[in-house]
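Memo to structure team: turn this sequence into structure tokens by end of day. - J.P.
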Amino acid sequence: MIGQQKHHVGRYLVLLCLLLCMGRPFLAHAVPMMNDPNGFQSLAWGIALATRPDLEVARAGPHVNEYRLKQGPPSYAGIPVESLLLLSVGEQFARVTIHYQGEDRHKQILTYLERQFGSLERIPGQMMRGLNQQYTWRGTDTEINVTYHANTERGFIFIDSRTLAPLFNDHISDSAE
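Reply from structure team:
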């Protein structure tokens, strides 16, 4: 009886994986980025964020630290967002994470990103509609990934240094959940 239950659980897991994969493209293609910023705003990839007087530590760790701006509510391109964090790995600025809420903000952010970094039109693999939308711009030094969940109207932006962001993987423990 227990063996049959394990077999059914395995079937359900395979079915769940297939359903999840059907909702997103198998291969995500990136838009070639125009105007690679080589960082975020006036901050170049690799600088030491700890030395910046306009930032405060949001969460400190042995290898990875999160910082937030000291002044004002968070915004991206003049658009209010839920949170904006700058991350360093090994004391080097490597990633920005932005969380936002609402379809209107999502449209404003996409408009800004397309204007700054390149149009999404006619790029195979981009999810323009649906419950989970994904967009990627890839430059020489920077990669921008946007994921938007239409059912909850939650959006996530990851702006990464292409050379430093992979270092985060070196510090993920085997027990991370």
